[in-house]
Specification:
Shape: globular
Number of helices: 13
CATH architecture of the largest domain: 3-Layer(aba) Sandwich
Strand order of the largest sheet: 3-5-2-1-8-10-11-9
CATH topology of the largest domain: Carbamate kinase
Structural class: alpha/beta
Number of domains: 2
Helix content: 25-40%
Number of strands: 17
Strand content: 15-25%
């Protein structure tokens, strides 16, 4: 068995669904299980409908309805599938009307609302597979064994899902049926719909692959795999043939458009490989994410994340005393502020935060124990590679940055042993990435060999 997940851009319209179906059809001998996201901009259309319902009293679902009916017509699926999705569209219309009456959209209701995208998507796709001679069955995630907690908008799957998922899916695969399953959504034990948060559709696929002991999970996107840098910054960025779970997780955490670390956890648990492929360029080999690799080049990839705040906290009153760091971190926890990078000493600590936080009250409390200096408009530049060769990596990276007067303002080496991160000014991050990438990946970079 293999599990194949296609995102919204890969099923955005009739042409993309045809392409997706051809890819899957060629894999039928490998017993695929298919996981789909909502079509194109459907999720945005659904949220727009709710906003209009709250703000203007409008109850229109015209954009959602038009996209799906137009796709059905273009695929030549006829009245039967229109009748199949009609109850869903009616249910959606009633929900939007309810939102317009109460003028409120709770997280619970929002999860219910956005679930319609995936539910419509799988029904249309399954109907098309049948039309081209592939026996297929559309399944909402709860009918495929997905049971979650009630943490709406970012639900966690319950342990029982690991048993119920193979019980529901494996008999269909064994019978020669292609299960077409909604990504991103689940249901609680009390029968309410939830969503799995960021990377939720990828998580659906990897959970199925891990629970059903599949050969691999394939995640089909609109890039040729995981690249050595963001191609918008580095046009000659190269796809990686393979990367470890740990490296991929660090890349995702620090800004790369890779699988979210949460979505890789099921495959990490079972050692199931994940293959990232491009649905727009099927011939590209893609990138395989695996448990471990032999030692390779010192640098694997470079990424960056802008709009970061740097907070320097220094205490002279607690020199030599125990408890300074404990007080600092408990203050952040009290204010619900999540920390990204950390560099510490006995009497000082520097941290990076998302710039969206309001730090005024946090700063007041920190000033009770230390001097605080907050610097905005910073960026994190992260080098993923072999930290055992950190001296070589830092020497070369900082050399090319210094040549452009790009100064590192904080340095952190991750406990994962695969990442080195440093802070630069926001407006210098792109050039830093470009220069470091050229140093390690250009043709003349002979020292980048293992």
């Amino acid at each position: 068995m293999i599990v194949m997940k296609f995102g919204g851009s890969s099923v955005a319209d009739a042409d993309r669904i045809r392409t997706m179906a051809e890819i899957v059809k060629h894999c039928v001998p490998q017993k695929p299980v298919l996981v789909l996201s909502a079509m194109g901009d459907t999720t945005d259309y659904l949220l727009e409908s709710a906003d209009a319902a709250i703000n203007t009293g409008s109850c229109s679902i015209d954009k959602v309805q038009e996209l799906h009916l137009k796709t059905i017509a273009a695929l030549g699926l006829g009245v039967r599938i229109e009748n199949e999705i009609a109850p869903l569209l009616k249910e959606l219309q009633d929900l939007v009307m309810g939102v317009s009456m109460i003028k409120e959209l709770t997280k619970k209701t929002e999860d219910y609302l956005v679930s319609f995208g995936e539910r419509l998507s799988v029904r249309i796709a399954a109907a098309y597979f049948k039309a081209i001679g592939v026996q297929a069955k559309a399944l909402d995630a709860w009918d495929a064994g997905f049971v979650s907690d009630d943490n709406y908008s970012s639900a966690w799957l319950l342990k029982e899902s690991w048993e119920t998922i193979p019980q529901k899916i494996c008999p269909l695969v064994d019978a020669g049926v292609l299960p077409v399953i909604t990504g991103f959504i689940a249901k609680t034990a009390h029968n309410t719909i939830t969503t799995l948060g960021r990377g939720g559709s990828d998580l659906t696929a990897t959970v199925i692959a891990a629970a059903c002991k599949a050969k691999e999970a394939q995640v089909w996107k609109d890039v040729d795999g995981i690249l050595t840098a963001d191609p918008r910054l580095v046009p000659d960025a190269k796809p990686l043939e393979a990367i470890t779970y740990e490296e991929a997780a660090e890349l995702a955490y620090y800004g790369a458009q890779v699988l979210h670390p949460r979505s890789m956890q099921p495959c990490v648990k079972t050692g199931t490989p994940v293959l990232v492929k491009n649905s727009y360029n099927v011939r590209a080999p893609g990138t395989r994410i695996v448990a471990s690799l032999e030692k390779m080049a010192p640098v694997r990839a470079i990424t960056s994340r802008k709009n970061v705040t740097l907070v320097d906290i220094v205490s002279t009153r607690m020199v030599g005393q125990v408890g300074f760091l404990e007080q600092v971190f408990s203050t952040f926890a009290t204010h619900g502020v999540s920390i990204d990078m950390v560099a510490t000493s006995e009497v000082s600590v520097s941290v990076t935060l998302d710039a969206d936080y309001d730090l005024s009250r946090l700063q007041e409390d920190l000033l009770k124990i230390a001097h605080v200096n907050i610097k905005t408009r910073k960026a994190i530049v992260t080098i993923i590679g072999d930290v055992e060769r950190s001296s070589e990596i830092l020497s070369r990276a900082f050399s090319v940055c210094a040549a452009a007067s790009i100064q590192a303002q904080m340095l952190s080496q991750g406990a994962s042993k695969v990442n080195i991160s440093f802070i630069v000014n926001d407006n210098q991050s792109a050039e830093a990435v470009q220069r470091i990438h050229k140093e390690f990946f250009s043709n003349h970079a002979a020292l980048n060999k293992a």
